[in-house]
Fold:
Amino acid sequence: MEVEVRPAVEPDEGCAAQGPRALCSAAATVPVLQQDTEAPVLGFQQWEAVHERRSRGQSISAIARELELDRKTVRGCLRQAAWQPYQRAEAASLLDAHRQWLTERAPEVNYSARILWQELRVQRGFAGSYVIVRRAVAPLRLAASVAALTQCRFETAPGEQAQCDWGQITVPLGGVRTEIHVFVMTLGYSRRGFALGFLHERMPDLLAAHEAAFAHFGGRCEFLLYDRMRTVVLGTSGGKPRLNPTFAAFATHWGFTPRLCQPYRAQTKGKVESGVKYVKRNFVPGRVFRDLEDFNAQLAAWQAEVADLRQHGTTHQRPIDRFAQEARALVPTAGHPSFLQAMVRDRVVADDWLVSIDGNRYSVPFALIGKTVQVVREGGSWVIRHRGAVVAEHAVLAGRGQLSVRPEHGPGAAARNARQRYSAPRTSAAAEPLHEVEVRDLALYERLFDAERVEVAV
Structure:
């Protein structure tokens, strides 16, 4: 419903004679801004109309009457060589001293206004409200979203770069719901991928996954891209990332250069992110696995029969076809010694004549307590040496917290029982036989040792 608002006092005849736009002094009961305070803003069409009429020789007064503008507005318009849109002067803000910091810090915390507000208060003495920060962050977040939509896909040359990441999948192994950690390496050019499941994401798992991927592809790329996982990078020092020493030695051993994604920029490793999602969505549904070995066997078959042969959504080619070109650019790895097997680990033998390797414990001869031994992985076994001589060998145990103990490593058990078994009964000086010592089978000592070990574990 429209309401007509009439002036409180009717205009007099003198006021009416000034024209319909005039307002008599008696009716001016509402305060208005002075025209000199902020000149009216003309749109582009009005600006063109003023300049077009002036070019025809019309006076400023005539232009003002025809277009119903103030003469000061017309003069100001004629002084502008080009039309300029109106820009309101920004009011001073408590954030003015922190604008640059806010622009640099916002992407690092994923444009979280709450985190930025807390850091401003604690670190920079900001006294403003959360609402001020939220309003300032909104255009930054919008600009980042637009940039993400319009950014160009980063493509790499054959053999230049591969991307690596972990993905977690919960599947039934032998009827028990188990979380599998799937390592995925995706070649940047061909998009051919390699995936392998593990029970953990520890350093030995990461290194074993790399060596399996190199064997699968028959070579490696010049650069490998990672996010900031702890097994790869420990943090920053002087503004530069500090690589995990073991992983740095692994990269040197194989000759590739690790590269790290920018914080909170997951799209920089989008190829492998897509590969992880592809494994989760295409491989896992509807499958049943007996154990981890069966999981990896089915995964390898799926990669060869499905993943390598699909039409890739970005390249519109099969990864195995593009790999034929990329394979020639990879650095060959066949015949290169394994880092895990070449790495010698020093271990000090504990008082229980055990050494700890990757979370499990393995026995060595009792006489080596307190001495340093060298451990090397050869295939599926740990070979333990002391002064160059092999003193023990154990099969590699899966998982953590497990024991592998050999009875012959115990404190003299083998030698003592050998003497008892093969020695003849001794007699006294009076030629009377002594009491016969009972000779027991070594298996009995093994059972006793197992029982003691269970008791200690409980």
